[in-house]
Amino acid sequence: MFHLRTILLGASTAALMAGTAMAKDDITLAMQLEPPHLDPTSAAAGAIDSVLYSNVFEGLTRFMGDGSVVPGLAESWEISDDGLTYTFKLRSGVTFHDGTTMDAEDVKFSLDRINAEDSANAQKALYSAISSVTVIDPTTVEVKLSEPNGNMLFNLAWGDAVIVAPESIENIKQQPIGTGAFKFDSWSQGDKIEISRNPDYWGTPAVLSKATFKFISDPTAAFAAMMAEDVDVFSGFPAPENLPQFEADPRFQVLIGSTEGETILSTNNKMPPFDNVKVRAAVAHAIDRQAIIDGAMFGYGTPIGTHFAPHNPAYVDHTGMSNYDPERAKALLAEAGFPNGFETTLHLPPPSYARRGGEIIAAQLAAVGIKAEISNVEWAQWLETVFKGKNFGLTIVSHTEPMDIGIYANPDYYFQYDNPAFQELMTKLNSTTDPDMRTAMLGEAQTIISNDYVNGYLFQLAALSVAKAGVQGLWANAPTQANDLTAVSWSE
């Protein structure tokens, strides 16, 4: 009997020691939106980068959690005195997840593909100054520009410029093959994406052995999944009213940071009556930003009066240009020939800020005579109907790309704003490297689009995430739309 007890005690001790030694090394992270496909270089959907940026795909440069741009697959670079030639020295020994070598030919293929005539890259305009890409040797690439672009290293850090191999392009939307610290394993559409540690990673290996991205669109279900500890992290938690409950629970930590997400009431500037600046101004004055922030986001969010992040040093506060003034809105409508208002459409994609905010905005517009018919659409439908088809009057979306005021220089962009003076200013900005001059130009750019009431500028989206107490290494802020897990681990 004594012998048996000794054996059982020994077995229990061994099991306990094994359990202590085997720290948790996997994670389940939930998010509200599921990617429409898995190619970050051919879609505007931020949900793609939310899963794949840095984890699976890497670019020549990359963003860190503090917003800084650091070397990625390029270990160093030289810029000519005239700012027209960038010579990138690539890291040696880098392989794609299929075992093939990543070299200068892949970089040339990736950058040439962005500017190809049939390119579907959502941010093609950012790279239009690239006139040629030349392979010097397997680890050296020369990129020539048609004009200086002070943002080129910044632009190359976007998910739209990650390096891909020609061999994997055919199946990239379903089977992404990159160079990152994690490799893609599987995608159960409507449910989850699984990735696992890349054993042949060129850099510091990931601590986690695997990660699962779960897609939970309903805010109530999100709260239930987190409280039941079915998921370890919920990135972009969609029910901000529940955050105090998580903050009071020692099982969890709440991360509140900033994003690059300008949340706007996007307006189709070519669709009557929104082609009339007085109508757009009326819409702007009909909106009570704080009521939207309080009602849809429970106070989380910073009011904005232009398409620029308030935490950026170059930000100019133009909220006074479009202050809440419903009587002014009615007067402007009358001046524009709509004394009794008009009817339009309001397309709302799945995020809570859009669905909840849309209900509030529709009521505010109705109060001045604008009847907005709400149409709740899924993300793929929004991309097809609104973003590509431009078949909308109004919509609500958060533009999470960093420093993206340049989209207003593209008259073919979905809100179809066409201002030659603004386009000329952006051309000058791209060729300017002096920091003070760039700040002045960015201020002027903000003023122009604010004066033109291009869109209804609502608020800067807050980064709201909930995680189990033991998770460490998550980004608090979101300088780009990403869930970078390369430095995430569990505390002991």
Compact overview of the structure:
Helix content is about 30%, strand content about 25%. The chain has helices spanning about 1-20, 45-50, 105-115, 150-155, 220-225, 245, 275-285, 290-295, 325-335, 350-365, 380-390, 420-430, 435-450; strands spanning about 25-30, 60-65, 70, 75-80, 85-90, 130-135, 140-145, 180-190, 190-195, 210-215, 235, 250-265, 300-305, 340-350, 370-375, 395-400, 455-470, 470, 490.
Mean pLDDT: 92
Q: What is the terminal-to-terminal distance?
A: 37 Å
Count of runs of 4 or more consecutive helical residues: 13
Question: Could you estimate the helical fraction of the residues in percent?
Answer: 25-40%
Weakly predicted, low-confidence segments: 1-21
Provide the gyration radius in Å: 24 Å
